[in-house]
Every structure is written in structure tokens, then in C-alpha cells.
From TrEMBL:
<dbReference type="InterPro" id="IPR001611">
    <property type="entry name" value="Leu-rich_rpt"/>
</dbReference>
<dbReference type="InterPro" id="IPR032675">
    <property type="entry name" value="LRR_dom_sf"/>
</dbReference>
<protein>
    <recommendedName>
        <fullName>Nematode resistance-like protein</fullName>
    </recommendedName>
</protein>
<dbReference type="Pfam" id="PF00560">
    <property type="entry name" value="LRR_1"/>
</dbReference>
Length: 275
């Protein structure tokens, strides 16, 4: 079995498949015999108790609104894709996720109550999405040697993310409460794309000029009243770009549209780059 999806519309069909393949045995429902679970709530309970699936590569549990803790991943050593989007009651990712060394993509978008995410193995990881995880205060511990093409999308930043020296792409766009990036961001020596559009950032950290592999940098806002970005709110403060001097030597695209710019170091920046 390669894919397991949990949803209201597909639970009955998927359970048929699981039962036919003898992957789920439920003794408590029918005197020791295999039985069918008819609603998604029971499906989630069964799956959490029957996760000894060593060949599993893809696990989809998105929109499992009753899910509070992920299953134990100890027996899922071949897991490559884990989708936990919109698990609105999810509070904890089991620490055994560190056993999933083949994990390629992990999506925890809109897990608003998530507060325990102790670690993640990045040996194979290419994509980590933590957008709208508003209760998560600490970035998870990174285990294993990072792939050079790792992409992270998240709704907040922590200085601990700056330990990811191999990080290539960081996207914190649409983080409506984000006012600053960590000063240590200059340590991300392999970063090529940095997207921080539609945030409240008005002054990038001075260390940003140390990102000499950076090719794309965006802090743009929008005149349209989408999300939190209204015309009135954007002009409360002025955007100041740091003096570049000899930094940002690989920068190809700089997007500061609608940022209410002040001269600051921008004039010197434009003198350095013949865009």
C-alpha cells in the first residue's frame, strides 16, 4: 500500500481496501472478526492504532479535525510524503518522526494548535510547510544532513532556523503579524530565494547583505485589499533597505513594490547593481 487518505467522502472505500489487504483488523466491533468502520471519526481512531506499515510511502491525513496527536512513526521507515494539512486540533507531532529518514515532503499547513514538534529528519526532505501554525513557538530540531534544495514555508521565524546552513529557499510571505526577520539570517550562506512579501517587515536585518548566493529577494506589498494588506495599513511606516556595499553579489531579482520606500541605503543599492 502506498497511499492512505482520510476524508469524509472516501473513508468507506479506503477501509474496504485496507480490509481486503488485511491491513486493518478491528476486533472490538464484531467479536474478534474483521469489521467495517462507517464514519471518519472511527476511521481516524483505527488508523492511529494500526500504523505498523513498514512499506507505507505516502500518508494523507489532511482535514482530520479530531486528530490531536500523530501516530507513532517508528514502523514507517519508508515514509516519503506526510500530509497533515487542516488538522485543526492537532497539538503534537510524535517524536518518532525522526525515524523517517526518507521523508521528502511534510505539510502541516493550518495546524493552528500545533505546539509540540520536537524534531524532523532532513536527510531526504525537500519541502517543509508550516504556514499558519500559529501556536508553534519553536522550530523543530533538525536531524541528519540537509539536502541542498530544501524549501521551507512558514508563518513565523525563529533564530533557530538560521542553523539550517544548507537552506536554499525560505518563504514567510503572507505572515500578517511578522514584523522582523532574525538578525542571524545572514548565516544562511546557501540561501538563493527569500520571499517575505505581504508582511509587516519595514527594515530587513543588516546581515541580509551577507547572503551572497541570494538570487531572488522580495518584500513587496499590494495595493489591493487582500488579506490584511489594505492601502491604509501599509503606509503607517516607511520601508528602509540596508546599505548593500559589496554584499548580495548574486542578486538578480529585487522586488520592493508598494513598500513606501525611503532613500536609506536603496540609492546606494541601485548604484551598486545595474539592474
Amino acid at each position: 500500500m502506498q497511499i492512505v487518505e482520510s476524508s469524509d467522502s472516501g473513508a468507506e472505500y479506503i477501509l474496504d481496501v485496507l480490509i481486503d489487504k488485511s491491513l486493518v483488523f478491528i476486533s472490538e466491533y464484531d467479536s474478534g472478526k474483521r469489521s467495517r468502520v462507517w464514519n471518519v471519526e472511527d476511521f481516524e481512531d483505527v488508523m492511529m492504532d494500526n500504523m505498523h506499515l513498514p512499506s507505507l510511502r505516502k500518508l494523507g491525513l489532511r482535514d482530520s479535525e479530531r486528530l490531536i496527536q500523530t501516530p507513532d512513526f517508528m514502523q514507517m521507515t519508508n515514509l516519503e510524503y506526510l500530509d497533515l494539512r487542516n488538522c485543526t486540533d492537532l497539538e503534537e507531532v510524535h517524536r518518532s518522526l525522526e525515524c523517517c529518514r526518507k521523508l521528502i515532503a511534510l505539510n502541516l499547513q493550518r495546524c493552528r494548535l500545533l505546539n509540540k514538534f520536537p524534531c524532523v529528519n532532513v536527510e531526504s526532505l525537500g519541502s517543509l510547510i508550516l504556514l499558519h501554525c500559529s501556536s508553534l513557538e519553536k522550530f523543530p530540531e533538525i536531524l541528519g544532513r540537509m539536502k541542498p534544495e530544501l524549501e521551507i514555508k512558514m508563518s513565523c521565524t525563529s533564530s533557530s532556523i538560521c542553523q539550517l546552513k544548507g537552506l536554499v529557499k525560505l518563504d514567510v510571505s503572507y505572515c500578517s503579524k511578522l514584523e522582523s526577520l532574525p538578525e542571524e539570517i545572514g548565516y544562511l550562506e546557501n540561501l538563493e530565494d527569500l520571499h517575505a512579501s505581504f508582511t509587516l517587515i519595514s527594515r530587513p536585518p543588516s546581515s541580509i547583505i551577507c547572503l551572497n548566493k541570494l538570487k531572488i529577494l522580495s518584500f513587496r506589498l499590494d495595493l489591493k485589499p487582500i488579506f490584511f494588506a489594505t492601502k491604509e495599513s501599509k503606509y503607517r511606516v516607511s520601508f528602509v533597505f540596508p546599505e548593500v556595499n559589496e554584499g548580495l553579489r548574486s542578486l538578480e531579482i529585487l522586488n520592493l513594490s508598494f513598500c513606501n520606500l525611503t532613500d536609506g541605503g536603496l540609492r546606494k543599492t541601485l548604484d551598486v547593481y545595474p539592474f
